[in-house]
Amino acid sequence: MSDESFVLGLAIFFAWVLRWAFKTLPQEKWQIMATIPMTKEGGNKWRGLNVTYYGLFSAAAIVLAAAITFVLMGGIGVPATVTGVIMCMVLTVCLPAAKLVARLVEKKPHTLTIGGASFIGFLVSPAILWIVDLAFGGKQPVPVIPALASISISYGLGEGLGRLACISFGCCYGKPLSQCGPWIRRIVGRYPFVFSGKTKKISYEGGLAGTEVIPIQAITAILHVGISLAGIFLYLKGCYSAALSLVIVITQSWRAISEFLRADYRGGGKISAYQIMSIAAIVYALALVGWSPPEPLSTVANLGMGIATLRDPAVIIFLQALGWVGLLFSGRSMVTACTMSFHVVEERV
């Protein structure tokens, strides 16, 4: 398979997924995926735990991003074992950071921040690569810039697809179009988001159910997925520094700009902590690119070798386990409750 065919195939698939998601997920029924009976309250009534589509789409985004990481890292000769260790270490930092940073910035116990988690993850990634290199005794050296480029591309793809989770839950929502200037209404007025359902965050927090709002999640999804595909193409052509710089500069610049178009609470002040993190990430990435020596030509990626890593049974099991961890971590709703009852349906003769 050629590099161009691979990227084009991904683009067609993601375009179909995003088109479906933008039309479907704002609906009320796409918030709660399942409910698990937990505690009996008397009679035939039970209190249940809601499992959300937010968790499902978040888990799917993590798995797809991880699969791309295996392909890209495998393409430059990094063994799947080493890639798996790197991902486990990054996620060990990012998953707790998603809750901790949101709690520090937004002062809320039951919320997550992908932006804050990704900033912390990218910040510690060079140190993680160094630790992994030491752990393998230098026998499996990981080229720093290509590895950071693959991590950044996977982050961009995961964040873009992860916005589908935000659409289903009604979080990270945009400002009402009625509060926007005429030029914004001209640009996005034909494709607003209108959310329904009292349990969606845009409803109980913002009181904006049934209101036309800026489709900020859709814009972010399209931009992140598109720029990540461009990053994949550059990566496969051996342009690792360009791929890293492009993905980080574009995604983090949009992160800073998009904050001005959102209506959900992002912390106090005119400039949010997340915007500061985004600008810092750009400076950090460009500094790494500027200070790192160029990679040798021997590290040019081989797509066939990268795709072959996905046929490894250990990688398949790892991705499945990663999906379950993502679902359990983000899919259990702590802000919605459910009471259910069970009865036997009378058999009809």
User: Distance between termini?
Assistant: 59 Å
Low-confidence stretches: none
Percent of residues in helical segments? 55-70%
From N to C, what is the helix and strand string? HEEHHHHHHHHHHHE
Question: Which value, in Å, is the CA radius of gyration?
Answer: 21 Å
Instruction: List the total number of helices.
Output: 12
Report the biggest beta sheet as strand number plus sense, adding barrel if it closes: 3 strands, antiparallel
Order of strands across the main sheet = 1-2-3
Counting helices, strands and paired strands, the structural category is mainly alpha
The amount of beta strand, in percent, is 5-15%
Ordered list of secondary-structure elements with their pairings:
Blueprint: H1 3-24, E1 32-42, E2 45-52, H2 53-75, H3 80-106, H4 114-135, H5 144-169, H6 182-188, H7 201-204, H8 216-236, H9 240-258, H10 273-291, H11 303-308, H12 313-330, E3 338-341
Antiparallel strand pairs: 1-2, 2-3
